[in-house]
Amino acid sequence: MRSAAESHLQPSDEVAEALATGAPLVALESTIISHGLPQPRNLEVARELEEIVRAAGAVPATIAVLDGVARIGLSEVELERVASESGLRKLGQRDLPVASALKASGATTVSATSFLAARAGIRVFATGGLGGVHRGWTEEQDESADLDTLARTRITVVCAGVKSILDVPATLQRLETRGVTVAGYRTDTFPGFYLHSSGLPVEWRIESPEDAAAIMRGQDAFGGDESALIVANPVPADQQLDPALHDRVLAEALDAAARDGVTGQAITPFLLGYLVRGTSGASLEANLAAVRGNTALAAQISLAWSRS
Question: Could you give the CA distance from residue 166 to residue 130 in angstroms, rounded to a whole number?
């Protein structure tokens, strides 16, 4: 009889072989495919990110929940389904047992992808930007589930910081409080998601994938809480969103959200959508530049980790 974990968590054949042989693996989220990009570009980007991982010599593991089963690594048919199926839910970690019980399908956010990757035995995960503490937190108490998941999940997340629509200083404070290690990759300042820099300092700087792998080994050697390592990798300065345009459109978006009474789970897609429209798509291109760079770096870290 299969264990409960085996029946709820299903690696693809390629991922299962990589896990068995110790080959380098990189987890990829599926929310960017189902909710973050228009068709057919979403499928093109999904394939492109997997190819970036393969070109580096690692195995991609795009994660989604299909018919109640957490798929760790998607076939081409499954990837096409995630990219095209209407009504696909957005699943955080807390939603996974419900989706499993109801045989539901959904794309995984940072929290769900981190959790499932770690459960499957994958140590490195690439994404665009993390969720965090929302602006106006003192009134709304609105904070992404990403932060709590990363505080109790031993995974390395390569990202371009946190989404710039958030309260970035408060998010960094929260990560520190929860014991999540943040290291800037070849930078002394925390990335600004669409922007090369948020202007906020990071306490630790690393210069190579091998540095990241050494930190991961240190995490395991010291033990303690099973918290994450965030490798903050800035979007290249020549591919960032123009900072003045970013600041102007974000201010307009925040005003529009307040005027229209947009709050809770609706606020993030509202603000991100406003940024895409207000920058004529330039924010989306900066986001994709960040995701590509993060995916390439994650593959290099995974290779360094597999050799350690």
Answer: 10
